[in-house]
Every structure is written in structure tokens, then in C-alpha cells.
Input
Amino acid sequence: MTPLDFKYIAEQKKDWSRRTFLGKMAQGVGALALGSLINPRLIAGTSSDTWRGILPSPQFLPKAKRVIHLCMAGGPSHLDLFDYKPMLKKLDGQPFPESITRGQQLAQLQNSKLIARGTSFGFTRCGISGQMISDLLPNIQTIADDICVVRSLHTEQINHDPAHAFMNTGSNVKGRPSMGSWLLYGLGSETQNLPGYVVLMSTGPEADQPVSARQWSSGFLPSRFQGVQFQSKGSPVHYVGNPEGVCQSTQRQVIEEVQRLNSLQADQSLDPEVQTRITQYELAFKMQTSVPELTDMRDESQATLDLYGVKNAGDGSFASNCLLARRMAERGVRFIQLYHRGWDHHDGLDNKLKVAAGHCDRASAALIKDLKQRGMLEDTLVLWGGEFGRTPMGQGSGRDHHINAFSVWMAGGGIKPGISWGSTDELGYKYTDDEQAMHVHDLHATMLATFGIDHTKLIYRSQGRDFRLTDVQGKIAHGILV
Amino acid sequence: MQVVGLSMLFVSLVLRAEDIPDHIQYNRDVRPIFSNTCFKCHGPDVKNNRSDLRLDRSESVFRPHKNAKGLVTIPIIAGKPDKSEVWRRISSSDSGVMMPPLDALHQLSFRDKQVVKRWIEQGAEYQAHWAYIAPVKVPLPEGTEANPVDRFIHNELTKRHIKESQEADKRVLLRRVSLDLTGLPPTPQEVEAFLSDLRSDAYERVVNRLLNSPHYGERMTVPWLDVVRFADTVGFHGDQRQNVFPYRDWVIEAFNTNKPYDVFITEQLAGDLLPHATESQRIASGFNRLNMVTREGGAQVKEYIAKYTADRVRTTSTAFLGSTMACCECHDHKYDPFSIKDFYSMGAYFADIKQYGVYSDSISSPEPELAGMDNDSPFLPQLNIHSASMQKRMQREKFKLEKYIEFEAAAIVANPKKSKDMLEWTSQVREQITQNESSWVPLNVKSAKAADRVTATILPDQSVRILSDLDALKSDNPRLRRKLESSHLIVLSPRPGPIARFRLVALPEEMRNGYLSRIPDHLSVKAELKFSVVRSGQEIAENIIIADGYSESESQNYDNGYPVAAIHGYWISSNNSGRVKQCVDYLLKEPLVLKAGDTLKVTLNSPDIAHVQFYASALGSRLPEEEFTDVDRGALLATEKTPEQNLRTARLYFLATGGRDQGKYTTCLSSVRAVAQCRDGRAETVVTVAVKPLPMRILPRGNWQDENGMPVVPEPPDFLTTKGTRKGAQRDSRVRQTRLDLAHWITSPDNPLTSRTFVNRTWRQFFGIGLSSTADDLGQQGEYPSHPELLDWLAVDFIEHHWDVKNLVRLIVTSQTYKQTSKYRPELKEIDPQNRLLARQTPRRLDAEFIRDNVLSVSGLLDDEIGGPSATPYQPEGYYASLNYPIRDYHAEVDERQYRRGLYMHWQRTFLHPMLANFDAPSREECIAYRTTSSTPQQALTLLNDPTFVEAARVLAQNVLLENKSGDFNERLNKMFLRVLARTSTKQEALALSGHLVQQLDVYSLAPLDASKFINIGLYPVSAQLNPVELAAWTSVGRIILNLNETIVAY
Output
């Protein structure tokens, strides 16, 4: 960080205290009501080692404390899962109306003959809310009354790599921070024993589209805010295990000696940074013990394992990762991101959808149920969805990438349960341009709002410009907030 | 600067924020305030300015303006704040009047307002932005200091009555300057030499030694690679490898030979356009190819071309000009006078670069040159070059192989049992050798069955002709044809005897006009062979495993983008092989001995080959290009062998059989592969090739699908062209400018940004922070320099010395300012919390690469080879599991390349090596002018547990123990300290570590198995001379020392 950054952060904090004061007066929200989330050490900065977040106090009443993002990587077909389109079914096999597609960007279908493709799957009206959900997702159907299905989401990037980047950072330019990093920067983490932003990865039967570590990069934010990927092989966090032949007590002693010698040096050089390093070694040692404790799932009951459909706890499957995500949520991890690579269905759509749904449906629903029964759903925001949707036009036996409309669902963390938000035209091609239309920027703005954060105020200066997760856009979907 | 601990610093900043300078300067004091708060609406971005007031230029503010209510006011009346509308607005508390409005993101502080007020009082004098005016050398401030740097620093300190710190201790200074100039610590001998050199210029001599070290270039290259976003992989989607290391080697060489910075820039931007461009200049032009590219199916060419162009403009502006043009991809800059037109005009310079939007064989946008490309293919265009490092490596590998064979041959001769077996082998091969000129024996064809719709004919010379129906070819789908017409089965009846190699010969086919391919107009052929043997009287065939295949001509075999010498899977003949006979030799994984009646089955997969013949040889191969000579023949056939002939026969026997030791045979094969992989000292590298420029137009709001924007031609930014900054004669304005013109414009001595940008970044390298802290933005939002006159003096001096980088570096590191101790001064905590006044040096944590280099060096593991292909050190298992197209393996190096310097580490953009990532190295997707420095638990975990660091601790311990057999604790400990920290240990340190050692000796003598596991981490052999328990305990001591904060910091 440069001094300008320091100065800037100082200014930022000044701005904030002034603004939140004004804001509170205007909204008539008593400061006391927010007390539980305000950390007194935040502004004082008495500790040089732990980051408590840049935001001194929330803008809105915060509901969510953490996010679990179930990223269905590859782009699940909204038309076969959440967006019921009888008209498309009727048109199945016939030319797709050219009036709709003229001048539009397509990925692999560019310049080919466009044929409508209706879904092969049934849809059922579910729960009291009566949301239409595909029979491919029998378990998610049972949580229809807990989730808010958004059908009007749209994005700007049509290829996997940039689309993931857009979903995570709100930009297709590289080097921008992802949403998890923004949250850590804004709010800090609730745990010091585990990384505040964790990524887990699972894969379908075939190696699918790659997912890059830039998706959880902190970009221009300091690297302490970057996501840490837990590995399914070897030690879950890189270098978290002791070297072979080094027992825990030796490791402890080595760290103690390092601390002792560093302190001696601090006395001599008066370098304040040495103290910081000493703290980091302490945290590292804590992490060495808390990570194994976290990933050891032997204390989970058989009923819980069955609920999620976990066969071998810790096998790196989506089900196992969902369970691990709940354990992280319990331990204060701020942002938990699960990628499941298995939703890019250019061909063999019907079969591949069954496989992918088979991997994800039960555990996704289980996670909601489990969080709910533990009283954690109300402050855990769960987001389920991919980086884009798929075309209502067929591509051989599959569907191509589609950015004009796709469906995701959210639950918990201040999101209204059992509602639908936004819609698409009768063929599921484009979102309906009304007040329920939701761009990715709007999704981000809304997610931040559940944390009590005004997305226009969470900013960081890089190369002279103030950046936000929502760029210069973003409107909050107040209608889905509790 | 550490990120943590900032709260403390910011408090002190806020406390001292209220002092206002007596004399207000627009650039230093007012512009930052306006820029941050007012320019958004009253600045260069006129589209977002609802009034016509612009506060960024003086023309507008002194004129009367009509406001929304029709009232005429004057924004600023010099000397009269009370009559100035600007002051009325910013001092108002009326929400309808006040500026900035209540909902604006940035508000003015009390101090800000007072500064503006005083500035108006003093006459509201505007200055052009400091970085956009040509720098001038002011007379040096008064003083006795010889080094100009010290004069400026001293001057500012004296104004504040602060004294410089004293010079750092010699040991500290030597370690600092060695790390700063070479990225490597001083050896104990170098420390000793410096301490005992009492001459007055001892330090200057050290500096010269370091500047002349080849490691200087390596050190200077690291930040440059960040700036140009150099990486070994393409970054998008499958993130495949690209051939690019020769560019990196070029940069190292450029710094080492002190290439003037203007030439350095020119060759990178336009090396290919220089008259009679040399190979080296064309390698340098690879700079233009370092942007991320994609091979993703479904990606659109135009969209990605737009992305590549924007990337190049962002990089060019930040790297060379310290300016941010990124915003102008969509709109005019909000703070600086760059326009959207400037952005695309800059992009137009790069419109002539030969490239592909999407580097894959696509049906929707076919490119003839990309036909047949797959995920293993390279990224064209490339240049096949001579690489000094590959040449050197080849010599070394050949030498290793020769030595190995020599040693084993001598052992065979000396061993009676082996000699006897050798004789037997000789008699078996004698017949083959006698009957054929070479060692190759043609194999008789028993039967040949071609794929469906293809006919195979056995010719009298035992070759096989494979032809397809030409008429059917015309109507067929080529993809389908490849599938259906590929697989042929050929049965051969060989003579009994040993076989070490098979050969496939592709012959020109007369019925196809002498081409190798049976498909008309097809210049290259491909083939994949599978061999099996059917033993006499048996039914079931046994597979014969091929280790490697080698072809004589230049082949086109790639593995995930890299050229590979040994063929796995398909052999593809080179594109110009059209009518020339081709040979491919297949080395067997295990030598085969055939008996009478055995037959060989060959499955030949080839969609195109027209005429083939098969051979076998009993002899093994030294090198792909080396063949059986007359001297060899003489030696083999001689019945009474001279000692020399005997030895030669032993060599041939060993090469063919490994002396009947499969392990040795395999070693030999991999050694042959290592030589072959050096590809005769050649390498491939991406370069710039100029073609007809693509038309370029402004993309409104950056939308690549919008074709309504104005067409643009290559031009420098408007506001910087007017000063006649172009080198040499004015060009004819009708002639299109090129990248060479861009280079000339950037390196023109009166371009105000280029020299400042480089000098500022170089300064940062030696003080941890630039004279302007925003090394990536010298624009209006950047920081006004702490010592503007010094920055300008250095910038001018740099140009006056013909952009002499070493001279600049020498000037900085020989200054007293640089040589000061870095000891923290509590009394300056309030006055100068960031140490910008430089009343001391600043301790700086080493960059990721140098943290690695340092431990490798002090332990004695470092491989100090300069340049060459990137290396793959230990990496956690499964780290690339999320990559695909192709699926990625990671093989850690198994030889000295394991210990290459950090800058040679394989740079995978989407999954950067965790050690690098943990220590803040950037993924190099975008141009990075400086790295942030953080302090995290992951760093501690890396230093504690990464096998590289554990192994280094062990080898450090091992070397110290071997050098000091006496067993004296203090002596050994001091040797360790000297190696790692260039100093001896203190009493307290020694006490603590002796306690630890005793304890660990206890621990490991009770658990000898643990000791053995611990010291066996890593490749480097464990010394058999040492007691494992003692070594383990000392390794633990070594780990502690390598984990000290002091070890990873330059004090």
C-alpha cells in the first residue's frame, strides 16, 4: 500500500462516520439497534494485526453475516430448471423467431440455423408459494417456500471465463476484486483461525470447463483479502500440514523460537512490522489446528450425512462440500464459495442435466434445511446459480451459452422466502424489462444491502479511481428484501 | 508498506492534517483537492458536466458564468475569495447552494476549504499538471554532499531541522545492496572481503561488482516482468502454455548489457519494424504478444481482438507513461486530459500485429493457419530462434550422457560376466551389421490390411502402398474421413535377434505425384504406431511399449503449447515435407529379443500417409541424430578387438541393452530425451509480425458490437502531441504512423512522462516507495512527489546520460541517503510516519522471488544458471485440478532445475504457484507497476512447511555440519547466521537456539524414523557422513533461522 492509500483510507473513514451519522438521522434508525454489529475496535485500530473492515457501521439494518455461494459453473439451463416456458415447448423443433434473435450475440451458435428447443422435463408448482420448479430438482422443490427464485438475471459476458469474472467482480477487466474480497475488505472476518474467504471445488463425471483462481482473487485490494481454495487432495490448505517427521509439539517450539528471536530483533531495530509478523505466526499456528478440526467431519451424525447425501465425508463431492460449507459458516467464515464444474451442456443436455442435478439437488436443499434447523439461515445468505443461462434455441442435442436471461435462487440472510422475482418473455429469451429486471450489478447491490452495506459507499481507490463492486451501476431489489 | 498497522498510521496522519502551507501551490496543494472532489463534474469529462464550469483549467474560472437561475457570477476573482462564487459554494451550508452536493461521494474537509481559500487570496495561480510539463534540472541545493540525491534529501530535512541517520553497519549495508542489486545475499566470503577492505571506495567497488554481476539483470527483470505482464500461460479459459521464455532472457540480457532505456522500449514495441531487424530485436517484439489470449470454443474473434487491443493500450500507458488510460475505453478520462479518441488512436498503433482473436480451429471463423489446431498447439506466429541457454543446456546434457555411457562401458569391460554377455550379444547382431550398410534391417511384410475404403498393396521392395478412392474423397466430409480411413494393420515377419528400435519410413508415392500424402494438396502427414509381437506358436499378441519416437526432420510436436522433441502419440511431419522421404525412429522401452517364427503386428493410424516401409535395429541410440559409423562397425565385427575396439563395443552393447539392466537402460533413454529436448539449441518464441492493419474505430462505451464510432488512425494522445515531441523529421501526415513512431514518441527526450515514470519506479526499488508513491499513476489523481525537484533532476539526468540505467542505479545506491541505517526513529513517528523524508532507510520485505532465491542461496542449493525455459519447483498436489483443455499434470523438476531462481518459476496465470501468490506476486493478467506487500498467516505457513524451505533448512544444516566437523555449537551456529544474515548470532539468540537444539536432539533420538522422514524431504541427497538425528535437530535450528523476519527483509 502506498501512503496515498493510507491517506485515502483515512479520508474514507472520515467520510463514513459523517455519512452514516447523516444517513441514520434521515432513516430514523437508532444507532443502538445496530450495536450488535458494530465493533468498537474498528475505528480505534488498537490491534495492528486483525482487519476489522473498512466500514465502521452499517448503512441499512444488516441481516446477513455470511454468504454461501453455490456456483453452478458452466451455465445451468434456466429453461429446464426454473423458467417454465410452455410456448417454447409448443415451438419445439421449429425455427426460432428471427425477430427475437436478430443482431444478438451468440457464442457457438453464431451463423447457424436457429431451432427452438422446448424442455424435456416436467415442472411442478411447489409448496404454498406455488413456485414452478423442474422435476429435475425434486429436493429443491421441497424448499420452494424458503427460496426466492430470480428469473430476470442477465449478464454481459458470453464466454465462461469472462462471465465468471463478471459474476464475481462486476467487470470483465482482470485484476478487479471478487465479491468475497470486497466483503472482507468491508466487514473483516468473524474468525481469525480460518481464512475469511474460502473456495471449494467439485467436478462432475467428466472434466468440465476450467475455473481460474482469479475468480477468488482480491485484485487490486491487498492480497490478505483473497479467497483461499481448500484442496480435496493433500492438505486442505496449502502448507497447513507440518513437514513429515515434525510433530505438533516440535512445530509449536519452532514457532515459539521464531517468535522469541523476532521479538529480540524488534527490540533492537524498533521495526514495528516485526510485531505484525509475530502475530501472523500465531495465526498460522492456530490455522494449523483449526483446519484439521474443521475438515474432520466424524462428529457429524449419520442423519446429517444422509440429509446431504454424503457418501464419504471429505471426498470432495458437492455434497461433502455443502456440509463443509455449513461447518465453515458455523465457525465464522465470511464468504464460502462452492463451485461445481458440470453444467456446460452444449450437447447431450437431457442426460447431462440429470447427472448434474443428481449431484447438486439434494445437497443444495439439505444445506438450506440444515441451516434452518440450526437457526443459521436468517443470517446466512445462500446464492445458487451459474455464470449465465442457456439458449432457448437448441444446439444439436444441447443448448448454447445465453446472457439475456437466466435464473438463480437466493435464500436466508434477509431475502424474502417463497417468492419469485422477475420474468422473461414467453420463450425465455430475454428478461422482462420492468422494475424486477436484475442485472448482475443489481444482484451485487442487493447482496451487499443484506449486509447493511450501501454498495455505492464500499469503495477502494486504485490508479486514481474509486472502484466499487457495482462499477457505476447497481440498483437494490428492495422487493426481495425482508 | 504493510497493510496491517495502517490504522495506527492513519491516526497520526489525521492529527497532523491541519497545518496549511504559507504559500499555496496549485499542483501540490489545490489540484489534489479539486481532482478528488470537483473534477468529476467540473473536469475533463465534459459529457458529465452539467454546467459549463471547468475547474481544471484557468480559461474557464475567471470568466463570468450564468447559473441555472440566470444570475451571472464569476467563479474565481483572484485575491478575493469573498467575491468568488467557488468560495461561496464550498463554504455554504445551504443544501441548495453547497458544493460538493450533500450526496457527493467525496466531501471537502475544513482544511481543504482553507487551502482553496488561501489559494484564491494569493491570486489563484494555476500550474500545468507537474507530470505533463517537461522536467527541468534545478541547480543543486547548497550543501557539501557529493551525491546530488543527498543534496535534495538533505535540503528538505534541514528545513524541518531533522538530521540524517548514520550509515548502516557494513554487514547490513552489504546484505542490503546485494539483495537490492542482485536479489541474492552476500556469501560469507564476500562479507569477509568487504569488512577487511578499508579503502575509502570499498563500497563503490562492491556496487560495481554487483552491477557487473549477471544476477543484476535477473534482479532488474523481475519488476519489469510485472509491468509487461509476462507469464508462461495465456491466461484465458484453458490457460495453455505459450512459448515466451526467450523474451524473458532478452530482458535479462538487456539489463546486463545496460541497453539504453529508449532502445529497450523501442525494440520491445517495434523491434520487428527496425531496418534489418535482428533475431534479438524480433524476440524483443514478443512484448506485443504478452497480453492474455483465448482458445475458448464459442469465443468471438472481434470481441477478443477488442479485448487484446484495450489490454495493450492499458499496458502501454501504465508501463511507459505512468498514466491511466483504462477509463477511456468507455469515456473521456474524468481527471486527466486523455480522451476516448486517444485510447483508440493508441490502440490503432497495434492494429498491424498478426494475431488471432481466438486461437482455435473454428468452423464459424475459419483461419487457414489454425486448421488442425488443438489444445496442444502453439500460439502463432512464433519465431524459431537460437537460444544460448538451450545451447548450453544441450552441451551439458550431452556431456552428462557421454560420461554416463563411458562410465558404464568401462564397467562392462572390467566385469568378466558382463563381457561374456556382451560377446554373445555381439554374435547375435553380427549378421544384421554385416548385411546392411546401416544397422537398419528392412522388415518383410507378411500381410497388410488397410482401413475400409482404402487399399493396401505390398510392393516387391517390402514397402506398403496405401491409397484411397480419389472420387470418394471429393464428396466426403473430411472429419468423417479421418475417422473412417485411419486404421491399418500390417503384419511383419522379422528375423530372430535383438531389437532396440523400429523405424517408420514415409516414402514419396509416385501415384500421388511424389507426395507423402494420399490426399491431394496435402503437404503434411501424421501417423501413430502401435507394435505388438506374436510369439511363435502363440495366439495372443504382447504389446511392445515405445518409450519415445524421434523424427529426423523438424517435427511439429507440441505438448500443451511447448515443442517437444520426443514424439508421444501422433507424429506430424513438418509442413514443408511434401515430397521428401521422412524417417521416424521409435525407441523401445525395453529391448526385445525375437525368436524364429515370431511375427510383429503394426497398427498404423494415419488418415493420410500413402507409402510406408518398416525397419528394425538391434542398436540403441545415443542421440536421435547420431548414427552407426564405420568405426562402430569395425569394432563390432573385429574378432581380435583392440582395447579401444573393445570399449567401443561395450558402449554399443550398453546403449542397446543397458547391460541387461532395465534401470540403466531407462536412465539412458531419459538422458537421450534430455539432450533431444534441447532441440539443437533452438527454441520457439512468440513474436510480432506486422501485417495489413485492421481498421480501427472508437467503440462507444467500449462496446465491440457498436460499429458507429469514428474511425481512427495511430496517433499519440492529443494533449501530448502539440509540443513536437516526435523524434527526427516531422512525418508526412498522410503516411500512417507505426509502432516505431509510437516508440519514438514515447522515448522522445521531451516526452515529460517516460523518464519520470521509470526513474520513479527505480527509486521505489531502493526505498520501498516512489518519490511519487503512485508509480502507476502520475496523473492528476496521482500523488504529488515528496521531492518533485529531485524526481525531475533524476529524470533529466537519466536522459542526459542517454537513458543509462546502470548509471541511474549507481547514483541512487551510492548516495548517503540509501546507505543510512534503517533503524526506526520514534521521534519522527509523528512528523514522518511513512519515512518519506528519508531521514533513515526503510526496511523492505523481499519480493516473493527473492525470498526463494535467498533461502536457496544461503543453503547452497541455488542453481545459478542464467535464462532458459521456466522451471517447475515443488507444488502442492492437485493444484491444477480445476484446469482443463488440456487436463494438466504438474511434474516437479527432478534435477538441478528444482533450484532455479524465482524469476524462472513457471508462471501459470490462472493458478499462480501458491508460494508466489502468498507473497504478493501478481498473476500478471494486467500490467502491474508495483506490488502491494502484505503480511498474512499463509506466508508463515509457506516458510514453515513448503518443502522448498524445509529442504533448504536441511541442506543449510548439512553444509554447515560438513564444513565444521569439530562439533562446536557456537562455531556452527555462527556459520549459519553468517550465511543467512551476514552476521554472527547474539548471545541471547545462541542461548535460545542451543536450548532448542538440545531439545530436538532428545526428540529425534527417541524417534529416529521421524528424523529420517524429516531430513529426507526434498530431492537433494542426504549426506551419509552425518548422524541423522543430529542433522534433523540442526535442520530444526535452520528452519527457525530461515523463518526469522530479518531473513526475508532487507534492513
About this structure: The two ends of chain A are 39 Å apart (CA to CA). The first strand of chain A starts at residue 66 and ends at 73.
